[in-house]
Amino acid sequence: MNLFSKLQQREQEGTPIKVGMIGGGKFGTMFLSQVIRLPGIHVVGVADLSPAAVRSNLKLIGWPNELYGAANLDEAVKKGTTHVTDDWHGLTEQAEIEIIIEATGNPIAAIEHCMGAFTAGKHVINVTVEADAFCGYGLALKAKDAGVIYSMAYGDQPALACDLVDWARTCGFKVVSAGRGHKWLPHYRQSTPDTVWDHWGLTAEQAQRGRLNPKMFNAFLDGSKPAIESAAIANGTGLDVPTNGLLFPPGSVDDIPTLMRPKDEGGVLERKGMVEVVSCLTLDGQQIQNDIRKGVWVCFEADTEYHKNCFEEYKVVTDPSGRYMVNHKRWHLIGLELAVSVASVGLRGEATGFATSFRADVAAIAKRDLAVGETLDGEGGYTVSGGLRPASISVKNSYLPLGLAHNVVLKNVVSEGKPVTWNDVDYDTTTPAYKLRQEIESKIVS
Q: Residue 29's closest CA among 84, 97, 90?
């Protein structure tokens, strides 16, 4: 409850938390728009494949030119300004940078960046949840071995959901389920970057104004991002995931206690202790009022008569039995909230969520019939979407992780709706991402 005062103290002492960020796209720009008004945090450098795009984004959000005109990182440290570069290695090697924010959105590159940062003794806040979904447990172990912190990004839904689960457990409640909201209809599974804005509810002009990436936003729409973020929530909390993928039951915030019960009690869950996603649309496409589309929730249980009576006495919304209740955060503000992670890691030495196990995985599922020789284009693209599965099932059946379904060529036909397997593709075995994934899979097999 005192992070801001601690940031103020660091500012007064002249010892701000020094940060380097890799990736200056939408999420990173949102963070940068806030950090300029915060005490106690100094973004020493931003590395991106397109430094010109980063400078354009900084101008868009009102940074004065002199603030990001440092010629190099050493000058940026000395003058309290920011250096924009295309050299991510320089950020990890700069001695005074304490925290690396990985915000590229590229899961394969993100693994390499995180591993490089660990080797250099830097803490990492990983915005690229696509990487966390298929290698988060391995990254957490590598960080521990290196004596540094690996953290989810506050502002993204996984960290916020993990926070709610931790709140419920710290209060003494048994968590029945947790998850996030979404806008979902079954045919969205086949959505591509060409169809995303109509489904999403934006015009092309609005998307262009916001410099929104259609492939990235389509990953939200086609079910990939909900699967990815649900995997991160499960791996961070120890909750399980549905055997055959997310159900996306429709409902309002007040419907969640009724929906998120076991099937034998009238809900949708296979059993207690699961992750799920609630849709804001009815099955015929009608908008549900008081929805949780942009938020997260945790459902917990009054497992004694006394606690059940407390729910009744304080007039909280429950399921019909009076035993199940939900707490929620209706909105998440993405990069605008990321400074909470920076402050938590930099001031308290605490992650805002991280994978404690490998319980959940996201498999690459064919969006349509795929032919030999086609190149997979990863989440949000034209070829595959993400399907949430228990890690034990995914590994046993050799499902290709969605995070590695980028620029790999099919050598077998894969029918629409079927998972792509390792045997269906040619892949590069030399990347840090592939090697770390194989290391994690060996732990499941053994």
A: 84
